[in-house]
Amino acid sequence: MKGRSAQAINKxxxxxxxxxxxxYYEHHIKSEDDLITQARYIVANPLRAGLVDNISDYxxxxxxxxx
Length: 67
Prior knowledge:
Radius of gyration: 16 Å
Helix content: 40-55%
Order of helices and strands: HHH
Structural class: mainly alpha
Number of helices: 3
Strand content: under 5%
Mean pLDDT: 85
Distance between the termini: 29 Å
Largest sheet: none
Number of domains: 2
């Protein structure tokens, strides 16, 4: 996925080089429990990055997978 999307983005922008940050990785969802775990990880990113003090301060925290 990363390779093909990087090629498409570079082609569209008439550029070459890396598109994805070095520590990015893709994760294949294997089950409903795995989906919930990954959704919670993603929603918590602003908290880990220090952008909010409380996850409820993040405008998009209310994800159906957090219920």
